[in-house]
Amino acid sequence: MTPRIAIQEAPFDLAEETARLTEGRSDIGGLASFVGLCRADDGLAAMVLEHYPGMTERAITRIAEEAAGRWPLFGITVIHRVGRLPPGAPIVLVLTASAHRAAALESCAFLIDWLKTGAPFWKREELADGESRWVEAKAADDAAAARWTAA
Amino acid sequence: MTPRIAIQEAPFDLAEETARLTEGRSDIGGLASFVGLCRADDGLAAMVLEHYPGMTERAITRIAEEAAGRWPLFGITVIHRVGRLPPGAPIVLVLTASAHRAAALESCAFLIDWLKTGAPFWKREELADGESRWVEAKAADDAAAARWTAA
Amino acid sequence: MRVLYFAWVKQHVGVAEEEVAPPPEVRDVAGLIDWLAGRSPGHAAAFANRKTIRAAVNQDFAGPDHPVTAGDEIAFFPPVTGG
Amino acid sequence: MRVLYFAWVKQHVGVAEEEVAPPPEVRDVAGLIDWLAGRSPGHAAAFANRKTIRAAVNQDFAGPDHPVTAGDEIAFFPPVTGG
């Protein structure tokens, strides 16, 4: 099982990514997905995502491999968009496939929790009034990621 | 927020269902989905799903309302197929939308755990050798559903 | 009183549903099971192992002590296996 | 030694990356930060609050004690906010 990892400006297609994981096989019993979208909070005009090319892919590959070691997975897909995204736009997709639902659901939650704290992406909010500000990291995200190591 | 609940023989379209929940809004930050598929274990030729029309919709509506009371959700979709399904076919879709990822992920897991034990569906396996057998309920499924009431 | 059967309970009984008029001493789900089990060998087979039977009264899950009255819709089935 | 900057660290420093040749007494991430902070007012502003700075050495997260040597790729950035 080789995780599919992509960093791209283009949108992703959930149906296409699902088909890519399931096509031609009948051993998958559960497919879990998470899509993170750009919320239009506080007069947001656009979200601009920057990343560290090279390290990003490397960091995501490592955590995907960790997920594959912790749960019996048949497929992992992580797609993270970068660049300028309007409110409502999908930002990130995590998709996991397993024989059973618990492995798919838990690994999907693990991957998105970890992506929030362990992959080199930075978000900048462009506001309707022309101002711009960097999104600050949240303690809640660190706590969410930490619960997977406490277990 | 009115949950979308459907019991149908026809396949569902994950992309269409996702679009239905997100279209025209930009307050959704996380969208979690689970798709359960028919695995081809032990020479399975087809899975035949029976349900209790009327009670099924009623039971799923009730648990969707419970999920909406426990998590701040913008959307819930539950589609469960019935009839004869070949190996590899999608059986069930649970889709939840919220401002934040934890609410979407947790409510999605809650709904599928509960569907396994609290909605009147029965699965019969048709085997390649012509035999047929009813799937037995699993203690593990009861335990998975129970963890949501223990919390 | 309308009684519905699902899955292997239905296969044993041989019908998906039937109208029944149990005597007045049948007051709850457990009593109805006892009475139904005597109706035919198929019914007896269906209800042979009470532990594997679940019931619903008017489309809500119901335990053995749940009251049943004329006009109710009562269903018997194995533990559910959906999802 | 190649140094990369991201997000507001990059905005303060004014460049996305630079080649630097620190003196031999610069042996770890913390030492490199001290040395870089003296290169310009922009660098000083970028590194003013060390607690908000994260580092990577050769594309792995690295703490202040992590050694740095000529030929390394070293990056400085705020806590990450992806996902």
TrEMBL record, chains A, B:
Pathway: Cofactor biosynthesis; molybdopterin biosynthesis. GO terms for molecular function: molybdopterin synthase activity. It comes from the Bacteria. Its EC number is 2.8.1.12. The keyword Transferase does not apply. Gene3D superfamilies: Molybdopterin biosynthesis MoaE subunit. Belongs to the MoaE family. GO terms for biological process: Mo-molybdopterin cofactor biosynthetic process. InterPro entries: MoaE_sf, Mopterin_biosynth_MoaE. This is Molybdopterin synthase catalytic subunit. Converts molybdopterin precursor Z into molybdopterin. This requires the incorporation of two sulfur atoms into precursor Z to generate a dithiolene group. The sulfur is provided by MoaD. Keywords: Molybdenum cofactor biosynthesis. Heterotetramer of 2 MoaD subunits and 2 MoaE subunits. Also stable as homodimer. The enzyme changes between these two forms during catalysis. Signal peptide: none annotated. It catalyses: 2 [molybdopterin-synthase sulfur-carrier protein]-C-terminal-Gly-aminoethanethioate + cyclic pyranopterin phosphate + H2O = molybdopterin + 2 [molybdopterin-synthase sulfur-carrier protein]-C-terminal Gly-Gly + 2 H(+). SUPFAM superfamilies: Molybdopterin synthase subunit MoaE. The keyword Transport does not apply.
From TrEMBL, chains C, D:
GO terms for cellular component: molybdopterin adenylyltransferase complex. Belongs to the MoaD family. It comes from the Bacteria. Keywords: Nucleotide-binding. It holds the Pfam family ThiS. PANTHER family: MOLYBDOPTERIN SYNTHASE SULFUR CARRIER SUBUNIT. One of its GO terms (molecular function) is nucleotide binding. It comes from Belnapia rosea. CDD domains: Ubl_MoaD. The keyword Nucleotide-binding applies. GO terms for biological process: Mo-molybdopterin cofactor biosynthetic process. SUPFAM superfamilies: MoaD/ThiS. This is Molybdopterin synthase sulfur carrier subunit.
